[in-house]
Structure formats: structure tokens, C-alpha cells
Hints:
homodimer, 179 residues, 22% helix, glycosyltransferase activity (chains A, B), PRTase-like (chains A, B), Adenine phosphoribosyltransferase (chains A, B)
Amino acid sequence: xxNPNELTVTIGGLERTLPTVRAGNxxxxxxxxxxxxxxxxxxxxxxxxxxxxxxxEVLLTVVTNALPLxxxxxDRSGLPYVCARKKRRTYMQSPLIQEVPSMTLGVTETLxxxxxxAERLRGRRVAIVQDVIASGGTAQALARLVERAGGTxxxxxxxxxxxxxxxxxxxxxxxxxxx
Amino acid sequence: xxNPNELTVTIGGLERTLPTVRAGNxxxxxxxxxxxxxxxxxxxxxxxxxxxxxxxEVLLTVVTNALPLxxxxxDRSGLPYVCARKKRRTYMQSPLIQEVPSMTLGVTETLxxxxxxAERLRGRRVAIVQDVIASGGTAQALARLVERAGGTxxxxxxxxxxxxxxxxxxxxxxxxxxx
Lengths: 179, 179
């Protein structure tokens, strides 16, 4: 019998014991933490870089946990990246605003993509990068931002999948939905 | 006469033209963007890593723009890092909550440091890392979090200084306060 308070995963030979947190009706879910763990971030990026869809020209992610991972993927692939925010920043110019259709925990969110950043997606083939894809709601919202910016989505990449998102996702590992 | 809509800076031989944005009564201020620019992030980290105060055991930063930079500093120095958030996350356990005493633009903020992350600062010598230090309000709030967590501050590191913060800060470059 496993301890429901933690879950051990191995990526690229590096083992990490993830804490788990209560998530409403789901019970306990594992909490992936790339922030604060550059070694774990780096091995995940090293495994993911080979899986970036062919023809991809730009990576798109969203703050916050996937940010160090996407930085590393950009560094290793040589592809530039763009990052959507979860609130409006005062410096944004003509941002694209996109509601996230549904969230695992019933919390609605809005994504903001600064106008000059949206320009970097225009006419480009864009791969969407996340740390964890669960319901797929954020991934769908990011894909919609790509389309609205005039780009095309080459695919979805995530370190972990937790559940059954409606789109095809390339992941390193599946996490149990609850423990 | 310079163009007030941009400012060119050079770090480690790499030149970047920063956009400028209107910032209330300040006029136009340069906008440092590490997110989306892994090459610029990496040269800044390479220059900063040699400047980490002696005896430092842990780095502390705050989301969002400084996150890729701090990840790289951690990677290059081998020091772990901890990151404060700007809002409460549902998974946080007994977080430390710290008001930012004042902000350049008159916006008050609250920093949240998850309890298990605060534990990583206890008894440790901690350097505070930011992308830009301006009024120093966020730096002071981070320092207070270190003290409340039972750590001691070894110093303040930032890629850029923009203004005259009240503490001694090690920076790569001073930016003009307005253009």
C-alpha cells in the first residue's frame, strides 16, 4: 500500500517524491514542483526537447510552474518562446484576452497575451508547453490564443498528464488522477 | 537624442533593445523582459553567478519575470532556490504572508510563501534575487520573509537597478529611471 501523502516519480534517471494536496472532490492529487528544482526541470526539458513536434517554430506556455521548464526547452531547442499571463499587466498593449473554458477545480481563469507577444505567433507553427495537462482547458485556451494570433498549433507537450484531456498530448509520464 | 520608446542595453556582450512603457507620473520606463528570451536570461545569470554573496546557501526570488533568471542562477551555482508567490495557491500549507510596504506605481501587493518552502530557509543564509530592483519595496518584503522563516539575508542581487532603493544591491547595470 502506497503512502497517499506522496508519490515518487522518475524522469531521466532522477527520482523525486512529489507531495500530494487535497483537491476538492478528487481527494489527494500529486503536486508537481518545477519551481525551486532546477535539476528536475533540466532533466524534464532534456527528455522533452526530442519530442517537440516537427516544424515547430515557437513555443507557447503560461505562467507560472511551467516557466523554468519552457525556458530550458527554448534554450535546448533554440526555439523562441512566448508566455501568456494570468492577469493583465499595466504594460500590456492590445492584449489578446482568452477565457479558460473549464478548470479542474471549478475556478475560472482568464489568460492575457500581450499584443507584441501575440505578434511573435503570427504565421508561425506553435507548440504548446505545460508542466501538467489535466482537463485540457488551459491547453485549449492556449490553442485558441495561437489561432487568434494567426498561428497554427503543431501539438501539445507536457511533462505530466493527470487525467484524460480531450486532445492528443505528448507527455513524459502519466500521473494518477488521485491517490 | 535617444528614442524614448526604447533603450539599448548590453550584458555579457549581448545587446538587447528594451521596449519602454508609460508608468504613471514617471513617464516612460524601460521594460526588462527575461521571459521569452532564454539567451538574454543566460548571459545575465552567467554574469550574476560570480556576484552571489559569499556564504549564501539558498536563493529567494518572487514570481514572475525573475523566475527563469533564478532558475539559471540556481543551475549555475548549485544553490537551491525558493520562490514567493503573489497570490495564495490552494495547495499552500501554513504560508507566510507578507505585505509589500510600497510599490513604485502605488499598487499594494501581498507575497505568499508556502510553509514547506519557508522551512527551506530556516537557519540558512539567503540571497535575494530580482530581475529589477526599483523602490526596494519587494526586496524588503522578501527580506522580511527570510527573517520570519528563521533565515538570514546575505545580500541583494538584481540584473538591473532602476532608481535608488534604500538597501545595498549588487547589480549588473543601472537603468535610467525614466526616458
